[in-house]
Amino acid sequence: MTMEDNKQGLLGRMDRRNMLKGLATVPFLGAFAIGWWRKRRKDHYLQHSLLKELGMDASAPYIPPSPSSDKTIRLGIIGYGGRGAHLVRGAGFADPELIQAWKEAALIDSDDKRYEDFLAQEDLNVELNGVCDVYDIRAERGLLASGNVAREGTDAGVTPKARRYRTYQELLEADDIDAVIIATPDHWHAQMTIDAAMAGKHVYVEKGMTRTLEETYPMVDAVKESGICFQLGHQGRQTESYLKAREAVEKGLLGNINLIEVCTNRNTPNGAWQYEIDEEAGPHNIDWKQFSGPYSDHPFSLERYFRWRCWWDYGTGLSGDLFTHEYDAINQILDLGIPYSAVSSGGIYHFKDGREVPDVWQVTCEYPARDLTLLYSASLASSRNRGKVLMGHDGHMELGNSLTVWPDRDSTRYAKMIEKGIIDPEKPLFNYIPGKKNVDAVSSATEAYFAGRGLLYTYRGGRRVDTTHLHIKEWLDCIRSGQQPSCNIDQGFQEAITAQMAIISYRENRKVYWDPDRQIII
Description:
Blueprint: H1 3-24, H2 27-54, E1 73-78, H3 82-91, H4 96-108, H5 114-120, E2 126-132, H6 136-147, E3 163-165, H7 168-172, E4 179-182, H8 189-198, E5 202-205, H9 213-226, E6 230-232, H10 240-250, E7 257-265, H11 288-292, H12 302-306, H13 317-334, E8 341-347, E9 360-367, E10 372-379, E11 388-392, E12 395-399, E13 403-407, H14 415-419, E14 430-432, H15 445-452, E15 457-460, E16 463-466, H16 467-481, H17 489-508, E17 512-515, E18 520-521
Parallel strand pairs: 1-2, 1-4, 2-3, 4-5, 5-6, 7-10
Antiparallel strand pairs: 7-11, 8-9, 8-17, 9-10, 11-12, 12-13, 13-14, 15-16, 17-18
């Protein structure tokens, strides 16, 4: 302890003594305040002692430092839509128009930290050398982003650096691209990943990993045989509260976990995939044939292009798009793996807009070997958030961008401490709020939804950081070190099979099972 620490501690004790003396001069208020102060100190002592006994503390989970490397990695982006643009920002490149909008928003609202967060984002030592998108306007935005290395707005006069490729096959042939980010609709994920692996390009691909069960196996084989570094786009792997949740589970705070409930509830057109259709878009600047590929022969449709998640030809519905986020969060905490069985149901109950995928849906996944059930439910027409809840014999955990553990009043582990009044079942046993000293501002209902689930940002060293940036960074670090990242192809296989079990159950109206020996769904 330094002299300065001793000085601060002495001043703190003097301040408390002087405050208590001062309060004591006001009889009624002084007695009340002194009693409150002593109770507060006692509660703090008991909480500290309890956490010490449980082996927990409120410190951030340990995250190993990244290996140092001066190797520049050259990237290509395939699919520069909304998610693709976010992934490229995670690598350090942003559309000048977006930067300008953020700068202006920060001037109006000082709590809007998006521009500040982006400027503080670590330089990952990458180049964006290739952009491929079937929509000309999006491709042009991607090209502008590639040259915006200074992270400037529209007044900076950015010059594009990357080359535009009309087809992804041409991009994969480029000698100046080491790795690709695939952010296309789901129906292209598998084939693009297979082709990239065969070309020796490292792959970051968005979830859901595959559109169909049949695509999953050759995709996994291609990645493993090629030896490339593969990352599936579940950025929740970087969420600090999830890492802390795993620690709490491993130390037995919940006891035997038997039931898990997770959900997705949203209540906006955008949240239900009714995205805005660009007025400038049409057959003249969208390559519909390339977009559709061999997966659909439907005639040109702006609605299908911009709102592709609503049709089975291109997407995986609630299962692949949103359930997989919740499943992956639980899987990284508990190592659940593929369920023994799954049964799902739902329907199109609100958005009567011609979509094929349900807007209300649920799935039950059974894990008899683990003595637990995972329940997922979703409504795209209700904003009531039920969060993630892990229920155990000794306590339950509420989990999002923060976490709270509540003791169970009938717990075996805590029975004596509850009886003695050391633990109050009506109060949290453990609470963890990353970055609690910071003000978190979000600008839309969609951002608020993802932020609350730890999918938009998290904290490192008390500083707010975009989880997508951290997930991209982990992938790049692993490319340099020759390791595999947290959401590698094995984790991706578990996600893909679980999502496909849920889809098959819904579409075939039956309960399905996983055969681990034959590696098939039955």
